[in-house]
């Protein structure tokens, strides 16, 4: 009978990232990940994730939902980039301090695997597409939505990288505005 | 002894895309691809491509080189988007009419496979990164280069999609300017 394991999902993510960082992604098995997560089983792992790789991209669905909801709730008078700003605030708020260390380790793990880099590129593309779709639903024209979403995703990952590699006490939410503002300034000198 | 096979690479790409479109990507073997390409062998296939998947992304390296060279040769007075425009012209020129049908089939094949979609996302990200790097080498600041490259890659794939799905006699080079111009207009209404 399946036991309910408190925070099993969260523990599995942390244990996977730690093991991948310590001994490599290829060399790590699902059994080891479950074991390190406080004696969980392979069966518990597969209740939460499709495979060893997907444990690293667990946030994709929820991040998409946060972005879509933030844009859906934006005031009708907001410009495309203002809507993107609201989406980024929502997204950044979902990253608690304990994700910073995971983020830092994850970056190194991904940098060492072509397979994980492809999966990462697909995650970014999916986030951009979700953001663009939410913008179009909110009345933004197709091409403007695409560009605004690309800019938003760039801003988010750039802020995330800065946050993950720093050791201060600022939250990710505090990193986002400066980066977003730099990117908006960059838009004005494209041509 | 290895025979020299005229246009083997090109024939393998075409035969792979045809077989994937007819019977599915998963169901197709390297032996079948080589066979359909005018009686080539598996060994010849592996002289050209690392695996069954990579045959679909054969252009990645050469496309990156075309983009980098076009930007390197741009006049110093060119704006970031003017440099991107030159890169897109160079890239589009490399697509001859016979690629249109391959492009159309490839799009369908990729749409049916999560694995190929990931690889496609990685290819787009790599093209954007190559373009951004070339722009930075040519004096464009980091963030401006990133945004200009994102816009350029969007413009290219959008023009490519329009070209691949149409049946007129216009070349890809003729499709690019209108799409690029639409995207540049979209930039001005982001905020």
From TrEMBL, chains A, B:
It comes from Catenulispora acidiphila (strain DSM 44928 / JCM 14897 / NBRC 102108 / NRRL B-24433 / ID139908). Pfam families: TetR_N. GO terms for molecular function: DNA-binding transcription factor activity; transcription cis-regulatory region binding. Residues 30-49 bind DNA. Keywords: DNA-binding, Transcription, Transcription regulation. Coiled coil: none annotated. Gene3D superfamilies: Tetracycline Repressor, domain 2. It comes from the Bacteria. This is Transcriptional regulator, TetR family. Residues 6-67 form the HTH tetR-type domain.
